[in-house]
């Protein structure tokens, strides 16, 4: 897949930047969707200094704001570009030990909206464009970047995190919030979304998959985390434990995996899968709960005020106010 229009979120640094660079090297028209305009434009200039003829552009996008997402989609659609690939890479991890819940001006819990609700809305608003493009140019691909932290049973924070509860979707109940639980919930929601939308897109030429690119301590994912958490990630994990961790990757290695999933012919026709190290694997038991997938879809539509053309059911048993 070359010469296609592709969007990469969180592309100003880290994995997202490297993914955008790899895709640009393939001759693709890459939109680098970034929250910070200055960093986004610097990233474009950096890639163009390496690849002078590359087709890379910056567009401002704040995934923590539904207003920003809708403005981004409107501006993108005005360009009349035929979108083939969307890489939902942007994410944030707050201090895992923090018990103080952070919310946006729209009332969303910051981690859940940045890592899941924002990408959910962005993907759905671009779906019609992607389906139309795929009918003309061939298979379209949506890539949701996740990680091992989605698995409550996998030892990643075992004893400190619980399963996702739909009636406490944004950890709004008193005494239930901590940074690690919020991060885990957002990542499992990304998988629930991947699997459910994969089912809904059957019969179209748009495919959706999730990928765990491995542990990459040197990205800006932990930019809002506590100093001790950042130091541990950078020095202890990156320099001491990396040789012992099969899942640990350097930034360019992780980015290559994502770029391959987005473009390689060997993944053609694959949809609704979870990939790690180039292979389809099983994710957490929780992520395959079909009732939970449907409930999270309905909750998400209501929270971001989106009416899906793919599903007509509505959430009747939980009020919107109780979810925030």
From TrEMBL:
<dbReference type="InterPro" id="IPR002347">
    <property type="entry name" value="SDR_fam"/>
</dbReference>
<dbReference type="InterPro" id="IPR036291">
    <property type="entry name" value="NAD(P)-bd_dom_sf"/>
</dbReference>
<dbReference type="Pfam" id="PF00106">
    <property type="entry name" value="adh_short"/>
</dbReference>
<protein>
    <submittedName>
        <fullName>Uncharacterized protein</fullName>
    </submittedName>
</protein>
<keyword id="KW-0560">Oxidoreductase</keyword>
<dbReference type="GO" id="GO:0016491">
    <property type="term" value="F:oxidoreductase activity"/>
</dbReference>
<comment type="similarity">
    <text>Belongs to the short-chain dehydrogenases/reductases (SDR) family.</text>
</comment>
């Amino acid at each position: 897949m070359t010469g296609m229009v592709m969007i990469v979120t969180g592309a100003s640094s880290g994995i997202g930047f490297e993914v955008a660079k790899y895709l640009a090297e393939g001759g693709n028209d890459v939109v680098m969707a970034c929250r910070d305009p200055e960093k986004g434009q610097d990233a474009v200039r950096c890639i163009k200094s390496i690849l002078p003829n590359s087709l890379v552009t910056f567009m401002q996008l704040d995934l923590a704001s539904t207003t920003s997402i809708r403005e981004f989609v409107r501006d993108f659609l005005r360009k009349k570009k035929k979108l083939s690939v969307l890489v939902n890479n942007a994410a944030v991890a707050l201090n895992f030990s923090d018990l103080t819940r952070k919310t946006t001006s729209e009332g969303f819990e910051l981690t859940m909206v940045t890592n899941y609700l924002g990408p959910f809305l962005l993907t759905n608003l671009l779906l019609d464009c992607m389906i139309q493009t795929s009918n003309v140019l061939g298979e379209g691909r949506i890539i949701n970047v996740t990680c091992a932290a989605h698995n409550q049973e996998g030892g990643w924070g075992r004893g400190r995190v619980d399963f996702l509860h739909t009636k406490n979707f944004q950890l709004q109940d008193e005494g239930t919030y901590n940074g690690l639980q919020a991060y885990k919930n957002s990542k499992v929601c990304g998988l629930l979304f991947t699997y459910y939308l994969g089912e809904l897109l059957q019969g179209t030429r748009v495919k959706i998959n999730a990928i765990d690119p491995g542990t990459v301590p040197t990205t800006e994912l932990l930019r809002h985390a506590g100093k001790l958490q950042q130091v541990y990630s950078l020095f202890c994990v990156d320099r001491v434990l990396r040789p012992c961790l099969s899942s640990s990757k350097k930034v360019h290695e992780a980015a290559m995996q994502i770029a391959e999933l987005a473009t390689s012919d060997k993944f053609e026709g694959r949809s609704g899968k979870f990939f790690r190290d180039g292979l389809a694997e099983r994710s957490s038991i929780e992520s395959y709960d079909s009732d939970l997938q449907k409930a999270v879809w309905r909750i998400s539509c209501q929270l971001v005020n989106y009416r899906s053309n793919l599903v007509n059911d509505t959430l009747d048993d939980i009020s919107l106010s109780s979810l925030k």
